[in-house]
Amino acid sequence: MIPDKKIKTTCSYCGVGCGIVAEVDSQNKVQVEGDQNHPVNQGMLCSKGRNLHYVVNDTSDRILYPEMRWSRSHPRERVSWDQGLDRAAGVFKSLIQKYGPNSVGFYISGQCLTEEYYIANKLTKGFLGTNNIDTNSRLCMSSAVVAYKKTFGEDSVPISYEDIELADAFLIAGANPAWCHPILFRRLEKHKEKNPNVKIIVVDPRKTDSATFADIHLQIIPGTDIILYNAIGRRIIEIGLADKEFIENHTENYLKYRKQVMATSLKEASKLCGISVDDIKKVAEIIGESKGFISMWAMGLNQSAIGTDKNFSLLNLSLVTGRIGKPGNGPFSLTGQPNAMGGREVGGMASLLAVHKDLNNPVHRQEVANFWGVNEISPEPGLSATEMFEALESGEMKAVWIICTNPMVSLPNSKKIEKAMKNAKFVVVQDISHKADTVEYADLVLPAAGWLEKEGTMTNSERRISYLNKGINPPGEARPDVEILCDFARRMGFRGFNFNNTEEIYEEYCAMTKGTNIDISFLNYDRLKSEGTFQWPVPEYRHTGTARLFSDNKFYTPTQKAIFNIPAQIENTSEKTSKEYPLILTTGRVRDQWHTMTKTGKVSRLRTHYPSPVLEINPIDAYLDKVKDGDVVEVKSKNGIVRVKAKLSKSILEGVVFLPMHWGKQLQSDLNRANNLTKTVVDPQSKEPDFKFTTVSVSKYKKE
Ligand code: SF4
């Protein structure tokens, strides 16, 4: 291929945020390679990133023009943009007039660009008059958001990837970065290859590829994480490795923390979490004696009925050892989506306001309202992801606008989601692919531009903002999401949506950050295009970005001290196993697939690694259930059934089974959908669903 142009951009999959050079030929065909000069990946790409061009080049599944059904008894038909958006504006106006602003809402995505997130939030919270805007990021990292806020005063990830090469102790908790954040893990592997003294500890009920690489694998009983991290904290204190100076001068609430961790002996903790006392002691010594300690975590910790408390117990290990604000030290939550972090910056959840302002604070609400030129932001909390679909099911909410996400496959308790979609008076789906199961339920389908077909910015897991260039035109009549939203807002009669381009939206958001802890008011598109990526804050013109927060030991709390938050209780609050449902189901991801496979599912070479969903089950449980390797099994929970093949594996803890979450009806069968089984239980603090603990039974499937 002779490239016509080369475009620097960022991978659209995980939150690692690898730099990509896309080559576009005269036929608009794309090839990709890793950007050698990018600080994140230095030319490396994982299997998903390396194959991204197949997704762009194959437009066979793309939604090409707006489609609408005039009533539920008619099929959808092609309509013009004017017809579609006029109808949407008409329906939203009449519902708001009749039932109030909380009768409508938006459900968006961590794959949206920052400008899209910003506009959707401005439209909903500023102009529609409701805080009913939530995102699929609620499903992956909202527990970490709440924990950061309560510990440091703001939702601020303190460290950077460059800290990996400076640390010598890593605690990877409930994450499998070898598969889900591969380039980050590659950096960790290289670091260990060069420095054999580096110690890696992985906490996971499954022996994943990350756990296999680790020095110590703590194969924990699901739900007992707080007990384990408290026991490690206790041992650190007992052997005199707590940082007394840091605790005294820079933290609050230590005595309460000490009291809680001392209340459970190591022997008791060992019994409860299934980790030997020796291993607890060994890990405490590694952390306490290290020069640089980094904790990394993802869904295994966050997706729990006690997800925020689990986060607290892990963050407390950084506080008790004083391992924060120094090179090679700090807690590091890994974001699953490319712009989950950018969404948090612009207040992209029902519980947040832009630029880390607090929705519960009337002064903050007024500041945002003044900035947008509206009278007020509603003080009423918005509905979170699961609450929104419950409100649609009950009829309390009437209309939902879904952007770039596939709740029919990804939200828990699929049967309830289906009822909600059917019961809603009006469903808009704005997406790129017909392969998303959710499209089936839409009254109005709007074709959106995809990766490389629009410009904008994203922020990766380490607060690094990158500019994404447009390289090709979207197919058919597809339009960038910001254009669609601004067009709709103008049809609603709202001021403040007359932007000439995406850059003007970015500039409006940047102006809003001035003087805040995420100040990027001096970071314009020109700098991003010419100088590359920057980590926020970038508070001065010549500032080159901030790799590490809290270097001065000053936190964003009123006292400037970090807070030891004490988990309300140390034991899991999920349902208990029973005779009927004796096994614990945990769901998760596989190496070469992404979310609900609307993109990766198109690439044949990505399907070879894990061609179809299988239930991983320990041979002892399989023996008890009379199941052999390769048998088709029925997995049952209180909520539904899944029928898949069984894969016997000693790498999963006895009593636990695993199912990947990617597959849905469009790609295989709705009997393969893991979320048929999961329940709508959430962490009360973060509203993040309890995906990692569903009680199930497994039996060999017998045809009737
Ligand atoms: Fe893309 Fe993540 Fe792979 Fe990097 S590690 S290439 S960002 S999927």
Question: How would you portray this structure in words?
Answer:
The chain folds into 4 domains: 5-57, N-terminal domain of TfIIb (Single Sheet); 75-138 and 339-499, Rossmann fold; 142-334, Dimethylsulfoxide Reductase, domain 2 (3-Layer(aba) Sandwich); 583-700, Barwin-like endoglucanases (Beta Barrel), CATH 2.40.40.20. It is built from 25 helices and 26 strands. It has a 7-stranded mixed β-sheet with strand order 5-4-16-15-14-6-7, sandwiched between helices. The protein is globular. The chain binds iron/sulfur cluster. Residues 11, 13-14, 16-18, 41, 45-46, 48-49, 181-183 line the site of iron/sulfur cluster.
Q: CATH architecture of the largest domain, please?
A: 3-Layer(aba) Sandwich
How far is the N terminus from the C terminus? 55 Å
- Number of DSSP E strands: 26
**Looking across the biggest beta sheet, what order are the strands in?**
5-4-16-15-14-6-7
Organism: Algoriphagus winogradskyi
Domain 4Fe-4S Mo/W bis-MGD-type: 4-60
Protein name: Ferredoxin-nitrate reductase
Cofactor: [4Fe-4S] cluster; FAD; Mo-bis(molybdopterin guanine dinucleotide)
Topology:
Layout: E1 5-10, E2 19-24, E3 30-34, H1 47-50, H2 52-57, E4 67-68, E5 77-78, H3 81-99, E6 104-108, H4 114-128, E7 133-135, H5 142-152, E8 169-173, H6 177-180, H7 182-194, E9 199-203, H8 209-213, E10 216-218, H9 225-238, H10 244-250, E11 251-252, H11 254-262, H12 266-273, H13 277-289, E12 293-297, H14 299-302, H15 307-320, E13 330-333, H16 340-345, H17 362-372, H18 385-394, E14 399-403, H19 407-410, H20 414-423, E15 426-431, E16 444-447, E17 456-459, E18 464-468, H21 481-491, H22 502-513, H23 525-531, E19 534-535, E20 562-563, E21 583-588, H24 604-607, E22 614-617, H25 619-624, E23 632-636, E24 641-648, E25 656-660, E26 694-700
Parallel strand pairs: 6-7, 6-14, 8-9, 8-12, 9-10, 11-20, 12-13, 14-15, 15-16, 21-25, 22-24
Antiparallel strand pairs: 1-2, 2-3, 4-5, 4-16, 17-18, 18-19, 21-26, 22-25, 23-24, 23-26
Bound molecules: iron/sulfur cluster.
Iron/sulfur cluster is lined by residues 11, 13-14, 16-18, 41, 45-46, 48-49, 181-183.
